[in-house]
Design brief:
alpha+beta; ten-stranded mixed beta sheet; elongated
Length: 551
Amino acid sequence: MDFKRLLIFFVLTMAILLGWEKLYPQPENQPAAQQTSSTSNAVSTGVGAEGALSKTEPVTVTTDTVKAVIDEKTGDLRQLILTKYKATSDASKPFVLLDNGADGHQYIAQSVLLNRQGDYQFKNLIFTAPQKQYTLNGDKLDVRLTAAEQNGVQVSKIYTFTKGSYLIGLRYEIANHNAQPLQMDVAYRVLRDDKEPEGTGYFDHTYTGPVLYTPNGKFEKVAFKDLDSDYASGRDRADYQRKTNTGWIGMTQHYFMTTWILQPKEGSSVCGSNDDCKIDIRKRSDGLYSAGVRVPVKDIPANSSASFGISLYSGPQIYSVITKVADHLQMIKDYGKVSLFSSPLFWLLNWWHGLVQNWGWAIILLTLTVKAILFPLTHASYKSMAKMRAVAPRLQALKDQYGDDRMRMQQEMMSLYKKEKINPVGGCLPMLLQIPVFIGLYWALFASVELRGAPWIGWITDLGRQDPYYILPVLMALTMYLQTFMNPPPTDPMQAKMMKIMPVAFSVMFFFFPAGLVLYWLTNNILTLAQQWFINKRIERQAKLHRSLDV
């Protein structure tokens, strides 16, 4: 029973470390389906016409947080480099979020004007910029692109970059020089291929793909494979909310996101008061996946001008930042089925960080807090295991005496348990009750971009990366090995050897985990060792006292 209980716990812990997504998989990226649909079919879906991406004519914008590349002709945001973050696989380079396909990866933000039938309002609209390079020197920087007048209409597209921010403003200014009102809509899209983010490994796989939030549909993910299926069949059956009056839509990956904000915090919606915005998520004929929204534009009267715009957040999923951008935007830090536990745990981690201003110490304080909250459960579990450990020699004696009579041995064991007031499964149930909390805490840390690039002490300069000298994983392996001496030993010698080897082999995976996660588990193990040692000593003293009284 002892061995089985501990084995179950190790298996469940393995499930935690490998991730909830492995047991309940999120939609996986699938190979692109055969491209058979036509552009006209795509137009009928509602968000507007497609257009193959042209070669980039770069307009470069440099701020204190990003380096952006805008395609001069189309006004698409073709590349966004986050200069304060390091690339996943090469720390000497900055992190590239949006990309123009130079390395085969495409991920861009696009906006186009449409007529009410869903086709391009201006088929040959070509923008030009007054200069090719811009640098933010003050608090804000406007980058204006203007197209030549077409059919009596002048269109300008203005990007606004803000110091210290990943929120980019996009505004259209349109002058209607005709004698009739101008009717149009605007489509905002995030386009992406289905490639895994650079540096993704087995132990850090998370959902990558389209996401949206609407009041009716709440937070939704739309898998690439579902869009592949729709594309191959020529149908539009993916399950998501199609209309909204507020919310946000875009693409997400581990730590980072690109989303169009339909209603900023404390601001008004671009959709109006009704469900006038049409959401469309699909695979395009060029093989890219589009997460887009079509927004109605008020008619522009004859011989007058109008402007309208939206905000794009393209950057890290920093909780303290994105909660100020739009309502419910923090839901993009997707914790899946353990959100009930992960969300408050991350809130607590963030609160501790606000006090100590160091994410490493915040992790340690969070671990102490969780340990204190779970103390009644862990105390009951370790107390039961300590009692089992104390009677282990007597159990072995019963096995030696009644080894050939299993029924008699079971009867004598149950009599011993009753006499010593031991519940054989008393150590297992409290552990099982803690599993959801452990999983939630794991994902709260795993999904925290706040740990990326955050130092702790000494050699740990980035809690989001592996320990460069593997000191924390080695200490972790040592604590797991020491824990085996705290648990009741199996009566079978082979099982006893397995219980000594298993934690060491199990701890190998910690060599591949980010230092922040290892720090949590190491702290938790040290506290567990201290708690188990104290309880074991107390139970041993009590057992010795009882034996002396019996004599």
